[in-house]
């Protein structure tokens, strides 16, 4: 198993904790950043643009994705143009559909024609990937985020559809595939093995990355010591 520093897949930190984002900008393993309204709300963010601008002050020229939050396509487009104007490193997250299931196809085509770099988000099927690729074919560099973790949550193996997604994007050198919503460090290895371009990793999961490739006998001993330490601290007796 290759050490973390030798993986080819790019790691994007996924979160909305401003202090943690600032810390991660010093980590050379972190090649970009992503966030979304759910993570922002959980982090207590109440003012979207001021938060985003504070993030941009810290992340420099590394790519970062901010998501529109409208459900109407015309308003999505307005928000996308506004967000993209905040800086050259920004990618605008556009969901593959609105909450009624209406496709974002026309919006994606318009944004691509306008030169807006996007991150098409919330995809779970290969057909959605093919559609996104077709919409973005003539546009600037963009990302396509497939939520492999959510695929796995349904009991399906995400590897086959992620391979198909890579094949669908292969003719488009300006499009990169993101393995989104990983659940464990193994997913980083899997994404790297299949040649995925990017994997988003939450701040909690980033803390586990140093265990990648660790000796299992040593890890077993650490586990035994943890159980013993916690039992002693609790003062258990029989």
**C-alpha geometry:** globular
How many E-type strands?
Answer: 8
What is the CATH class?
A: Alpha Beta
CATH architecture verdict: Alpha-Beta Barrel
Average predicted confidence as pLDDT: 97
User: Strand sequence of the main sheet, in spatial order?
Assistant: 1-2-3-4-5-6-7-8
Q: How much helix, percentage-wise, in residues? A: 40-55%
Instruction: Specify the number of helices.
Output: 11
Radius of gyration from CA coordinates: 20 Å
> Per DSSP, what share of the residues sits in E-state strands of 2 or more residues?
15-25%
How many domains comprise the coordinates?
A: 1
Residue windows where pLDDT falls under 50 for at least 5 positions: none
**CATH superfamily heading:** Aldolase class I
The structural class is alpha/beta
Distance between the termini: 44 Å
SSE topology string? EHEHHEHEHEHEHHEHEHH
Major sheet: 8 strands, parallel, barrel
């Amino acid at each position: 198993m290759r050490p973390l520093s030798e993986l080819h897949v790019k790691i994007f930190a996924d979160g909305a904790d401003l202090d943690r984002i600032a810390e991660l900008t010093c980590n050379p393993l972190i090649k970009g950043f992503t966030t979304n309204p759910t993570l922002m709300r959980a982090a207590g963010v109440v003012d979207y643009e001021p938060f985003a601008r504070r993030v941009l002050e810290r992340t420099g020229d590394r790519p970062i994705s901010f998501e529109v939050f409208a459900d109407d396509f015309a308003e999505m487009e307005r928000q996308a143009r506004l967000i993209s104007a905040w800086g050259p490193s920004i990618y605008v997250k556009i969901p593959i559909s609105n909450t009624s299931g209406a496709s974002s196809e026309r919006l994606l085509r318009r944004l691509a024609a306008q030169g807006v770099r996007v991150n098409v988000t919330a995809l779970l099927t290969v057909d959605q990937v093919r559609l996104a690729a077709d919409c973005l074919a003539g546009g600037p560099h963009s990302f396509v985020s497939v939520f492999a973790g959510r695929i796995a949550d349904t009991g399906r193996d995400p590897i086959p559809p992620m391979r198909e997604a890579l094949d669908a994007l292969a003719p488009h050198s300006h499009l990169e595939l993101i393995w989104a919503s990983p659940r464990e460090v193994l997913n980083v290895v899997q994404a790297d093995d299949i040649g995925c371009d990017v994997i988003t990793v939450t701040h909690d999961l980033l803390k586990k990355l140093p265990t990648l490739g660790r000796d299992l006998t040593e890890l077993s001993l650490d586990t035994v010591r943890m159980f013993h330490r916690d039992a002693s601290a609790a003062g258990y007796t029989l």
